[in-house]
Amino acid sequence: MKKKCLNCDKEITVKPSQYERKKYCSRACKTDYQKKNPPAFWDEMSKKVAVRCSYCLREILRKPSIIRQNNFCNHECKRLYQIKNGHLINQHLRKDVTKSCEICGKQFIVPENRRETAKYCSKSCLGRANGRRGKTQYSKKVKLPCSNCGREIEKKPSIIKTLNFCSIQCMGTFYSKSAMFAGENSGTWAGGDISYYGPNWLSQRRKARARDNYTCQDCGITEHEYGSELSVHHLIPFRKFEGDWKKANELSNLISLCEYPCHRNRHSKKMVDDIV
């Protein structure tokens, strides 16, 4: 929709939903118009009162409704004021206790609510305590061989398992050699690949690719762009037809997809759905 800028009369295009709200062609026009025709809320500016910043004593303007006992020109002044006058702020509410540092024995003061948790007088003592604790925990580690390469490794008793590896590479090599999670041992096993889809499969495959204009139906890439023939995917898996290849290979059950990533993504999603 078209309308004119309220300030310069320039024609602007606006969405129907913003027709009543949008009035200017730019921020500059809005500022210029409001300077010539001050909004009603600008009258409040004239009611501001001059007060002093409680920290730097610089003069600032505040509306009467927000003037407090202490006023600050910015957050930095407020922070510095609280640091300087911290001993005067709510000190009548604070209850302190004296504790002895578990590392150096030095006495230090903490609020009552930290009586049980405060143990060290400084970050330095905390660091020394963590170092001692780490050495104690390290001394409890157990030496054992890597299940793949036999290399000696150290582990805490709580994380020792039936199989233990010195690296991710060793773990991958071991699982690959042992086929522990492959084939029927895999949680996504669906009965193995089917190599024969019936006597009409090749002709139905050609028809499906031609029907889909030799274009991947998920990402839109063509065979020419992809550099090879597209794969043809069964929307309902072939194995669910229990050998009825005529129904399984109907064109309504076939779709053309690029092998990577679209065809693989379809199979990955199917495996996840079956598990769930």
UniProtKB/TrEMBL annotation:
The keyword Nuclease applies. Keywords: Hydrolase, Nuclease. Coiled coil: none annotated. Residues 5-37, 53-85, 101-133, 146-178 form the TRASH domain. Transmembrane segments: none annotated. Belongs to the HNH nuclease family. This is Putative HNH nuclease YajD. It comes from Anoxybacillus andreesenii. The lineage of its organism: Bacteria, Bacillati, Bacillota, Bacilli, Bacillales.
